[in-house]
Each structure stands twice: as structure tokens, then as C-alpha cells.
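Thread: "does anyone have the structure for this chain?"

Original post by V.I.:
We have the sequence but no experimental structure in hand. Need at least a predicted one for the grant figures.
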Amino acid sequence: MLKFIVRRLGVMLLTALALTFIVFYLTNLPPNLEKLAKSEASVRMSDEDVIKWIDNNGYSTSMVSRYGQWLGVLPGWVKTLESGEVRGRCIAKGSDPAAAPSYCGLVQGSWGQSTVFKKPVTEVLSRGLSMTSWLMLSVMLVMVPVALILGVLSGMREGSATDRVLSTFAIGSTATPEYVSGVIFVALFASATAGISPILADWGWISGKTLFMGTATSAMDKITFWNFALPVMTIALYGIGYIARMTRASMTEVMTAQYIRTARLKGVSFRQVVMKHALRNALIAPFTVIMLQFPWLLNGVVIVETLFNYKGFGWTLVQAATNNDIELLLGCSVVAVLVVLVTQLISDIGYVFLNPRIRLS
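Reply from O.Q.:
Generated one for you, C-alpha cells below.
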């Protein structure tokens, strides 16, 4: 097991380096650097001034060299301007250049400065991730139990009316993207002129004009059921259908296994067969699917947080991409890569523990 984990960690490191270098290369292409120069200095800059700005800010060196400086494995660039001012990657504005460290990158905990928010990238990301973590936790608490229950109920009796109804719901929810389900939920539950909210208000069942809030901005200060339900439902809906379908397929396969038939022939009740024999083996495959939902949630929060104006990681990523914030984009890419790789590692280790055949082999 130890060799397996070490080998997986080595593959994770190489994968992370490859992915981050690709993102670094794409974000540091000349058009992006020209756009950054004009946004930071002046929109009316001439081409010569743009080239000079790029050179004075350390972007004229080779891509590999800049990537090494960003990682913190190469010394940061230092440039002496014509005015005598000394600039450098590790030299803070107004500080003594002689006292500045030589290395200041990802390894040293220096993720750069956001050009949009005018704050360190770590500060912006920590705030966004703290907001998104509550959203992802709420989604998982709703999505996983509901999906497993639906999948088990559907797979217990393949071909029954319950199976057909639940399978239709799972397929429909999986086929509905977040930007569609989010708009539908807002129209149904958070509109004062459409949906069920006007009807409930006329009947006196709700005190306000809408049943739920159409924006989750207030949830950044205090999370309530009324301002957090729609974002959670929007993200969870797709995942519920996907996990339920995988659970149903696994449950159906287990229910046709030879040992299940033997238990039934011995007179064991159907309930005991499901709970004691089938359920544990049927949940091995969905475990991997559930762990892989975490990377997918990062994609879902980009749409949902923008739709409901919830300023978490997804909203931050959209702002960074829209405003060409290179340092913040790189920070978001590091977080996304780490989430994907760590969840895959946990999934692989968990699958080995759950499946004795893989563990013995």
C-alpha cells in the first residue's frame, strides 16, 4: 500500500507540473501580456511603450524561466530602470531591494498580487474558497444521500414501475445543465410575478413576496435555508441523477449475483438480502463516482455562483478570467488541479480498501 501511495504521489506531482505549466503558458501569451500592460498602465499606450512595460516588469524573459520563478525554484527577476529604480519579482513596492529575498514563488507561499482586487492572491482565494466550501458541503450533504437512496430503490427491483420512474428522473436531471435548472428554480420559487410565490403570497402562506431568495449574496454574511436553498438545489440536481444512475447499475448487477440467489433460496428475507449482502458490494463503484464529484463541483460553482451572485471560488475565477488577472488565474488553476488530484488519490485508496480483490492483487 505504501508503494502504491508513493507511486501515486509521484504521478500527481508530474501531472500538477504539466497542467500548471500549460495554464501558465496560455495565460502568459503575448496578447494577454499586452492587454495586461494597457490595463495596468494606460489604454492609449503605444506599441513601444507596451514592449517597454513588459520588459520593465519581468515578462520579457523566457517562458520556462518565468515559470520557474513563479514556482519559486529559480531566483526572481531584478531590473534597474533608467530612472535608477530597482524592480524585481521579490521586491515589494517601497521596500529596500537589498533586503528582498531571492526566491519568492509558490513554494515560498508567495502567489503574487491580484491586479483586479489589488490584494494578495492567497487572500482573495482563501476568502473565495471559504465561501465555496460551505456551498460544496451543503451540496454533498443533500446530493449523496438522496442519490444513493434513489439508486438503491431503483436497482432493487429492475424493470419495476419504481425503477422506471426513478430512472426517468435521473436521466432528466443529468440532462439538465446548471444554467437551465438555476433559471427554472428562480422562475418557480424566487419570482414575485411568476411561479408559485405569487400564489402562496395570495393565500397568506408566506410573509414576503417570494418563497426563496433569487440571490445568494446575503448568504455570504449569514447562511439560511431561504437564501441558500436554490444554489444548493441547482448544483445537486445534476449530481443526484448521475450518482443515482451509477448506483442503480451497480445494485442491479449485484442483485443478479450468484450469492444473492443462494441467500434467497435459503429463505433469507428480501430486506435482509439487500441490507446485509447486496448494499455494501453495490456501493463500491458509486464511491469512486462520489469522490469524482468534487472536481465536477468546481465547474458547477462557476455557473451557479455567477448566476446567484455568490462571491466564492467560481465567481472569483470568472472575475479573474474576465479581467485578465494572470496571477489570480494561475492561483485558481493550482487550486483546481490540487482538488482534482487529491480527490482522485483518495478515490483510488478508498477503492483499494473497499474492494478486497484489488487489495489482494
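V.I.: this helps a lot. The first strand starts at residue 78 and ends at 80.
O.Q.: and DSSP finds 16 helices and two strands in the chain.
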